[in-house]
Amino acid sequence: MSILRYVMVACLTLMVFSKAAHAAGYVDNLDVRPDIGYGYAASKDGKRGMGYHAGVRILSAVRSISNPTPDKRWGLEISSVSPFESKGALKHEKYTAVGIVLEQVLPARIVATIGTIGYRGVDQNKSNPFGVIYGFAWEPQITEKMRFSAGLRAETIYDTSTISRYSLTAGLTFTVF
C-alpha cells in the first residue's frame, strides 16, 4: 500500500471521528489549513542552504473542562519537505512528511505547535527518518470560517546526519464545521 493510501485513510478516519465527536459534543470543529514556508536548513555534516515545505494540516479543536472556548487542537500534518532545494551544489533531499501535531491557542491569537513527524524519502532519497516539529504562529480571524496564519516553524529531522530547519510559514485555516 502506498503512502498516499495511508494518508487518505488517516484523513478520512480523522474526519469521520471528528464529525462523530462533534455530534456528541466532544469536539468543537474541524479545521483544514494549507500552508507553505521557506527557510534555512543546516545539517551536522556541513550542508547548509535554503529550502521549502508545502502541505496541509487537518485539525480538530477540543474544549478543556475549565475553559469552554476551544483552545486546544490536535490533528494530522501532511507535507512535502525539501530542506536544501535552492542550493544547486547540495544533494536534493526530499521527503513526504506525515505526523501528529498538537496546538495550543494562547492569548492574542498566538498558536504554539509541537508534533512528531515521520519522513519518507522521495526521488533519490531512500531514507525514512523521524523528526520533531515545533513553532509559533499568529492567527487573526478574517471571516467567521477563515483565519490567516503566519509564523515560525522549526523542524529537526533525525536522518543519517541530523537536519535542522527554520522557516517562515503562511497559510489559511478554513473551518469545515
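Next protein, fold it too.
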Amino acid sequence: MKLPHHLRLLAAFFILHSAFYISASAQETTALPPLAALSTYEYGDSLAPQLACEKYFRTATSAQRAAAETKLIALIISMKTTTAAKRVFLTWLGWIGTGKSIPMLTNAAENPDLAHAAISALAAINTDEADDADDALISMLPEMLNAEATRIEAANALGQRRASNLVAASATDFNMPPQVLAAALEAVSNIGISDADFESLREHLPEITTPQLSLPQARVTLAGIGNALRRAPAEKADTMRETISKFYGLILTVNTDPAIRVETAQALITLDPTNAALIPFLSVDTDPRLLTTIATGLAISGDKAVVKLLTDHFAAFPANIQSRVMRSLSTTPNATAFPLITMSLASTDDTVRLAALAAAGACGNEETVPLLIPFLASENKDISTAAFAALTQLPDCDGKVDAALEQQIANSAPPLPQLIPILAKRRPNAHFQD
C-alpha cells in the first residue's frame, strides 16, 4: 500500500536529517578542532571547545595524535599563547605525547607557571621513549637548575613512573634539601628495582661508600638497595643479601659520620639480625650510639651464636649501653638473650640492675624465680620494687612459675612475706589458705 503524499515527505525529511547528523558526527570525530582558536583561552572562558578536543583525542588514530602533538608543541612554544592555554595543552600532551614532546616539556618545567603541568605530562608518557622521560625528570633534580617545588614534583613523578634510576642518581649526584629528600625517599620506597638496575647501582658502590657520603645520600641509597632485596626473586635473594651486607660493612668502615654509621647499622640489622659481621665493631669502635644500636639489635635477634658473641663483649660496655640493651629486651622480649640479663643482674650499677630486672620479668621463666627473690630484700627501695614487679610479670603458660613461687614460700626460712602478695597479683581469683 502506498503511503499518503504528506507521510512520504515526512519520512524523507527524517532520513535526510539522520544522514546529515551521522555525517556531522563522523566529521566531528575525524577532524581536529582548530587548536589555534584555543591559544587565547583564559580561565572563565567556555569549556565547550576544550571538550570537543578531548572527545577527538579519545577516538583519534595514532597518525591523528601525532599531527595534533606537533601542533600542540608549536602552540606551547608560541609567545602568543596564554599561560592558561599552555597548561591545557601540556595536559593533553600527557595523553598523546611521545618522545618528540620530551625536550619541550623539559624546558617548560623551568617555568614556575608551567612546571606542574609539564612534569605531570612527563610522568604520564608511556611510549617507547619512557626512559627518556625518566632522564628528563632526573635532570630536574639538581639544585642549581630548578626551584625546590619543581624538584619535589619531579621526584614524585619519578616515583609514579617507578623509575629505578632515581636511586643511583639521588645517591651519587645531588645533595638534597630535606623536602626534596623526603619526596625522593617516598619515591624510592615505591620503586621496584630489577636485576639490571641492581647491577647498575652496584657499579656506583665504590663512590657511594666514600667518606664524603652525606646523610641524605646515605638514606636514599640504603632505602633503594634495601628495596632491591625485598623485591628480589627468591633464588637471587641470598646473593643480593651477601653483596648488600658487604656494602653496609664498607660504609661502617670508611665513613666517619656518626648518623650515617648508626643508620647503616640499623639497615644491616634489619637485613639480617643474626649477621655476625657487626661483632668486630663492638671491640674496636667507641661511638656509643653505634655500639648501642649494634648491641641492642643483636640482643633481640634470637640467635644463640650471635648472643654468645655479644656476651663476650658485654661486660666491657659502659653502664648506659648495658642498661639500654636491657630496656630493649624488656620491650622486645627474647629468652635467648637471658645470659646478658644474668650478667646485668650482677652489675654494681643500680641503673643496669633496674633495667635488667625489668628485662628478666619480660624474658624469664620458672628458673628465673630464685634469681629474682634475693633482690626483694634489697635496701634500695627501687631495686626491691623492680624485683617485685618482675616476679609479678614473669610469663607463665603452664603454671610452672607459680609452682616455683609456691615452692619458695614452702622452703623459705624465715618466711618471705613478699611472695604471698606476688602470687595474689599473679592469681587474683585464687583462694589462699593460712
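About the second fold: Residues 52-139 form one domain.
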